[in-house]
Amino acid sequence: MTYRALKYSLVAVMSVLLIAAFGCTKEVEVEKIVEVEVTKEVKVEVPVEVEKVVEKYVTVQKEVPVNVEKEVTKFVTVQKEVEVTAPVVYPEDMVVAVGALPVTLVGNTIPSLQSRLFSRLMYGQLAALNDATGQVEPEHLESLTLVDDTTVEIKLKKDILFHNGEKLDANGLKKSFDILSNLDPAKFTWKFTGFKDYEDTGTVVDDYTMRFKLTAPIDRWASAFTFMPLAPDHLEKVGLDGYTDDPVGTGPYKYVNWERDNFIQLTRWDENPGPKPVIKNVKLRHVPEAAVRVAGLMAGEFQVIAAAPPENVPGLIKDGFNIFVGDSMQSMYIGFDIYGSSEPLSDVRVRQALLYAVDMDAMHKTIAGGYGSRLQCQIVAPGGFGYNEALVGRYDYDPAKAKELLKEAGYENGFDLPGSATTARYFRDRSLLDAVAAQWSAIGVNVKMSYPESAEWLQLLINGTLPEGFMNIGLNWYLSDNTTSMWGAKSDPDFVDMRSAKSVITDPVAREAKVKEIAEYICDSAQALHAYTIPSVFAYSSDLPAISATKSFELQIPTE
Amino acid sequence: MPILNKLLVGLSLRDKPEGIIGAGKKNRRSLGHRLWVNRMGVVGGVLMLAFLVGALLGPWITPHDPVAIDLSRPFAKPIWLDMQEGAGILGKDNLGRDIFSRVIVGSRTSLIVAFSAVSIGILSGVTLGLIAGYKRGLVDDIIMRVADTQTAIPFLVLLIAVIAFLGGSLMNMILFLGLGSWVGFARLIRGEELSIRERDYVHAAQALGASDLRIMFRHILPNGLQPVIVAASLSFGSVILTEAALSFLGLGVATQIPTWGKMVADSRDYVTVAWHLSVFPAVAIMLVVLGANLFGDWLRDVLDPRLKGKRL
Questions:
Q1: For an engineered disulfide with A402, which of A82, A244, A353, A358 has Cβ 3.0 to 4.6 Å away?
Q2: Interface membership of A295 toward B (CB under 8 Å)
Q3: What residues in B contact A450, CB-CB < 8 Å?
Q4: pLDDT tens digits for A182-229?
Q5: Is the pLDDT assigned to residue A150 strictly greater than 80?
Q6: Rounded to the nearest 10 degrees, what angle do helices A170-181 and A232-245 cross at?
């Protein structure tokens, strides 16, 4: 009896202590404090006067007084403040905690946000998208020229090496294109399949020059050259699958080790002819839970965390961590399968009702912490190429109107809507989809959501077997031509025609007008729910250099 | 003595029958004294009853819609901590949903799974145990060896693998949790049966030509059910914990309706800024399991003849 009472009392006491411990959790104050340390080194100049002591000994029969000169040291202290800029010493190792790792390390395969996070550390590109101008500019190329409407000429730089010592030249590039073009297309990116607009894999003009022939004039002719060169001899020897186990690139870091779903280890390539990053070793660790990433950062286990939760940002700043918040050209998009098995979705009034039922402004503020840019019924954010201001406020939150539209469409009592949501793949993806589902439930739409794990979701997407109804994805504008890419087994023929018409317009003004027209069409037909751009939110230790990311989520580490 | 009588005598609501030590004495103790004497059972029973009522009446007694979001009040702390209007008894979660309402509604899934799974476990375990204990020989060997094999496999790992493969529907979870618990009940009833089947009344029934089924279910089962009932109440708590663990791992019932385990799992990302999101569902799990264990302990004391007179 006594033992039992003791046992239950212990349980009760522990419960109370647990609740009290949580109850005493400190409030996180919303206060931004930026501390700047200035190191001042005080040097003490000490001029020294030295008087020598000289002893002379003279041996005489009788005592003779000896003059002794003593050495006397006088110290005169002069204090002078000297501001010294101490050389910055960065840690050798940097561990980056990320929510999801890429499923493959081979450049140009599966253009996921996760692969872009690390790929530019290991791979250079023939040409790269300039965030500021939106133009594709040469990187490993000397020049990238549209010789005429259908002919492109590239000239390679002469000093580009791969990690294994191979040299990048036109013959090697052609070889790698030929190998890749004969492999399973499902393994390639939308970038590489951009070569489908070309007649073949190009012609070698000389050791560093190639020419390519377009099948027809197209606006996005340059995007195919954002290609990450793969070492041709190594690729030929091991094949694409072998390349996964031993990837070789031209980037500032080279591959060391990879444990799937655990970590990727890279080390600085010291023979890189280009600028060298200040951090020697980079490890990307898979940590799906945001709270664990934050805890690990505070404990010193990680030096950088990706997708830091907005609620934790004030606390992290207060604790001395640095924060990088950047916008991106990756938009959180919830697509409707218009031609799928969910009959209600085929009615534009139903789709419009679903858009009116969602308070996306509040979700952007609460779930995304106001980071990123709120999308206005189009995939491009304000300031982006083709942004259509006329679409602002087109579907402002109006649940009454949503119910009215459902009633008009004959779904007054609602309907069941299947769909899928990603988990820990994009910034706050699950929370957003849960909130959207809750607001759809409020107008009578009964959401049946599935939450496939990240790698499983990607495979379902590639196979085209995601549950019908709706799905979410972080869509890169550039990859989707700055127009919404409609999801589903069958594409809207009008959209396809408009997009094809846009692609042959070379005049940028006319092209932008076409992009706006497409955006308006997608918006009017309510083919998708556009949420906000996915922000890059990195938190990192104060002893690191300024970490940042491009608008395509490519991690950037300062160079020496 | 039939179980119900034992319970009523245990609660001092009925006098001990003739032939039992202490029989004939009127129980003149007050209700308060009786409750104090049986306090563990009372506490356990009250806890269980409270959650049961909450689960049954959930949709009608929740102050707010458990799935309705309120993005103007994310992470609101409980009103008794923060005095913020509209914060709710237990506060709000990351999407402004009322935690108290979600805890009440969450109890439905947990209790449905627990009651159903334990019932399946009892039905299957008692049946197999009775057959094994009565028939003996090869039948007994086969059943007990199957039980041994299942015991040797780590049940939670097996359950995770099965549910990950077949999907986390309510039926799958109830079925597999139930089938996982039959072994304990089978062993218990078989153990009781091995002694009961040698008693005179069983021999008498056999001599009178009663069928095996009648002997098993009419004579042996009622007299051997006590440890099974105690085990059932104790296993109730462990089934709730297992269901919560599966929900936490994302293998629970795939539905928008909240479950306690899922609430704890979803709150992991916010544990440093909003402790109340994870603590209250966890406390609910703890209280139900505590209630089941207290009630089970009390039941064991009441039904155990060796403890007669000590408590009463």
A1: A353
A2: yes
A3: 254
A4: 776 666 554 456 577 888 889 999 999 999 999 888 888 888 898 899
A5: yes
A6: 50
Nearest C-alpha of chain B: how many angstroms from A293?
Answer: 9
Please name the residue of chain A whose CA is at the shortest distance from the CA of residue B270: A291
Cβ contacts of B269 on chain A, cutoff 8 Å: 289-291, 309
Most confident of A101-110, A483-492, A541-550: A541-550
- pLDDT tier for residue A134 given thresholds of 50, 70 and 90: confident
So what's the ipTM on this one?
0.72
Instruction: Let me know: does A126 contact A226? Beta carbons within 8 Å.
Output: yes
Nearest CA in chain A to B293: A8
Q: Best residue in B77, B95, B268 to probe A by mutation, most A CBs within 10 Å?
A: B95
DSSP annotation of A346 reads G
Say whether A8 and B294 touch across the interface (CB within 8 A).
yes
Q: Do B297 and A4 count as a contact with CB atoms less than 8 A apart?
A: yes
Q: How many CB pairs under 8 A join A and B?
A: 80
Facing residue for B273 by CB, picked from A8, A312, A438: A312
Higher pLDDT, A454 or B291: B291
- Residue type (1 letter), A209: T
Query: Among A93-102, A176-185, A516-525, whose mean pLDDT is lowest?
Result: A176-185
Altogether, the residues listed in chain B come to a count of 312
How many other CB atoms sit within 10 Å of the CB of residue A244?
16
Q: Is A22–B276 a contact, with Cβ atoms under 8 angstroms apart?
A: yes
| Nearest CB to B269 within list A289, A435, A437 | A289
Backbone angles phi, psi at A34, to 5 degrees: -115, 115
Residue A17 is encoded by which pair of tokens? 């202590």
Residue with tokens 């990307």: A284
Which residues have a Cβ under 8 Å from the Cβ of B106 and sit 6 or more positions away?
Answer: B66, B257, B258, B259, B260, B262, B263, B281, B284
pLDDT > 90 in chain A, percent:
45
- pLDDT tens for each residue of A339-378: 877 889 999 999 999 999 999 999 999 999 999 999 999 9
